Amino acid sequence: MAAPAVALAVKAAVAAATDKRTWKVIAVTITAVLMPFILAVLLLMSFLSGGAARNNDAVNLAFHGGTISSDVPSEYRQHIEEMQDAFSQLDDAIAQLHIESGDGSLDSTRVKAVFYSLYFGADSLQGVDYDSFAGCFAKTETRTRTVQNPDGTHTEQSYDAAVPLTDLNQVFKNLDRLLGRTVTDDEKSNADEIYQRALGETGTGLTVSSQVPSTAGLISPCRK
């Protein structure tokens, strides 16, 4: 009795498997079960895409200027405007370093990209020491030069020269001392992404750091 029952069950299963209506029912059932998850994924992708576009726009506006859309939330607009003002102060700080022409120039875009990664979204930029921040990207070397005395003689004179740092690891060590904390790998990666975006290169995506460093008491230049 068992064998005929099994045979009938197998036959019924084969018939159901070959029936298009059965597959339609299965497909509808699966779709109904998975639809909430599909919608959630699509919503998340849309949200991330919109956030990435907004972050890219913020980078472009901060580095290159332009008109901020009226659709931008007021708080986000404030952060962009504060970053634009900070970049202006960083330009002044970099100029104050007096990098000698023979040593190349300090990459101001790199300085600003790191600053953006660390500070965009901060409650306030009051108290930031821009001179000290820019100084973290340079080192001081003692050099000699020949100067002419009033009597026509010449004397060797020692002086300190600011030289751009080419080693980013040293830059971040300087920033660690300045900020009193360790700059995270995510912040470094984000700074590099921002740097590429500012130069018009294609990157993988931007994030805004939620860990804003305390800037109180930052008065000592980083240059060593």
Low-confidence stretches are 35-54, 202-221
Question: Could you say how many structural domains there are in total?
Answer: 1
- The global form is elongated
Helix and strand content put the structural class at: mainly alpha
Helical residue percent band: 55-70%
Note the beta-strand portion: 5-15%
Quantity of strands, as a count: 2
For the report, how would you describe the main beta sheet? Answer: 2 strands, antiparallel
What is Rg? 30 Å
Task: Describe it.
- With 224 residues, this protein is mainly alpha-helical.
- It has one domain (2-198).
- Helix content is 58%, strand content 10%.
- A two-stranded antiparallel sheet has the order 1-2.
- Strand 1 (138-148) and strand 2 (154-164) form a beta hairpin.
- Helix 2 (20-64) crosses helix 3, helix 3 (74-96) runs antiparallel to helix 4 (108-119) and helix 4 packs across helix 7.
- It is elongated, with a radius of gyration of 30 Å.
- It starts with a helix and ends in a 26-residue tail after the last helix.
- Mean pLDDT is 75; it is low at 35-54 and 202-221.
